[in-house]
Write a structure and sequence with these properties.
37% helix, seven-stranded antiparallel sheet, single chain, alpha/beta, 18 strands
Length: 382
């Protein structure tokens, strides 16, 4: 028995496709119809583009040219993030997987970006892969990292994307010891010395009591983590303020406060002035997919977009000082003083440049700083 996971080969060979593409292939081949087209990927909202790495692997070897924004780019409504040029039957059945790769990864990156933007100078960690299918854990952590999180929790990220993982301790470990102090001391004694000594302080007693127990009974305490579920929080800010007060009066201003447990953007905005780090789970990993669509906009050199779409192959030009874009037809003169965002990434099936996760993250964070300087945070946080 094996896990119910579609194989790489089946994705690459187009088995993962909607049935109507199978019928489309059958009909077009029977009637000898296979026009050269330009197809573009757009959506009606803004976001942070991610998933290009998998999209390129999917399209590699096909006789098509592909243009795309760099990963980590903020995109705006109705502008293409990717354009495919080629005969339609050469890529038709890959639409389902192509959209799947970028819709989910871009959604995770976008949510990570919003949380990091909301947190200001405080840290955001991705804690949510346990809410998603394990087969996509590395893809989730990669997208979250591109979007701006400061660290990820899934150990698989180390093997699959070369990204160090981080973590504190679960309630299960404390319950196994049956004693918080024994558990905290054991963690301090056993875990690698370069790992932050973040003690979980809400297993059996209230958060204030356990935070005091931790700093008074454990030699090394870097932070305390409040994983208080929403059903037991009451006024969560008051709980955090109490913990901060009790730590401070004991001379432990150095001990940071880390919160987790069903956090949303509203929690980050409310607590960012008194909390040092946030572990965000489902709100990032389970982000609703970006609703990208792939549409033919040119056929044999003619504009043919369907209703609701804009015809013609396009280029997006960005003014980096204002974070405003201008969309022009690809054949038109370049927009003076602005940067073209769509670059050729595949030529006749050959990948020209592999996406770089670190560069994508740098780009996302660069845009975040521009947004902050422009005072447009609320527009993007929502």
């Amino acid at each position: 028995m094996r896990f119910l996971i579609v194989s790489d080969d089946d994705i690459k060979n187009g088995v993962v496709t909607d049935k109507y593409f199978i019928w489309t292939e059958k009909v077009l081949k029977a009637k000898n119809v296979n026009p050269k087209v330009v197809a573009e990927v757009t959506t009606s909202g803004w976001g942070v583009f991610a998933g290009l790495n998998d999209a390129l692997k999917l399209l590699e070897g096909l006789p098509v040219d592909v243009y795309a924004m760099p990963e980590g780019s903020v995109f705006f409504p109705h502008e293409p993030v990717m354009t495919i040029v080629g005969n339609y039957l050469d890529f038709a059945r890959y639409e389902t997987s192509l959209l799947g790769f970028i819709c989910h990864s871009s959604a995770v990156a976008t949510q990570a970006f919003r949380f990091k933007l909301a947190a200001g100078d405080k840290k955001i960690f991705s804690f949510g892969t346990r809410r998603m299918h394990p087969a996509i854990a590395a893809a989730i952590e990669r997208a979250a990292y591109i979007g701006g999180v400061d660290g990820v929790s899934n150990f698989a990220a180390e093997k699959y994307i070369g990204l160090p993982s981080m973590g504190t301790m679960p309630h299960a470990m404390i319950i196994c010891f049956g004693d918080q102090i024994k558990a905290w001391r054991s963690f301090d004694e056993v875990v690698d010395p370069d790992v932050s000594r973040t003690m979980l302080v809400d297993t059996y007693f209230d958060e204030k009591t356990e935070a005091i127990m931790a700093v008074e009974n454990v030699e090394n305490v870097s932070a305390v983590r409040l994983d208080t579920p929403s059903s037991r929080r009451g006024k969560f800010r008051k709980i955090v303020e109490e913990v901060r007060w009790e730590l401070d009066i004991r001379g432990r201003r150095d001990v940071r406060i880390f919160v987790s447990g069903g956090l949303g953007l509203a929690d980050v905005l409310e607590l960012r002035d008194i909390v040092d780090a946030f572990g965000v789970g489902t709100a990032i990993s389970g982000a609703g997919p970006i609703d990208f669509a792939l549409d033919i906009v040119e056929k044999e050199g003619r504009f043919v977009a369907k209703r609701g779409k804009r015809g013609g192959m396009k280029q997006v030009y960005r003014d980096w000082e204002t974070m405003e874009d201008e969309v022009r037809l690809f054949m038109e003169p370049e927009a003076e003083g602005k940067e073209a965002m769509l670059r050729k990434v595949i030529e006749r099936g050959r990948i020209l440049a592999e996406p770089d996760m670190e560069e994508a993250r740098k780009l996302a964070l660069k845009q975040m700083e521009i947004i902050r300087k422009l005072g447009r945070e609320q527009e993007f946080i929502g």
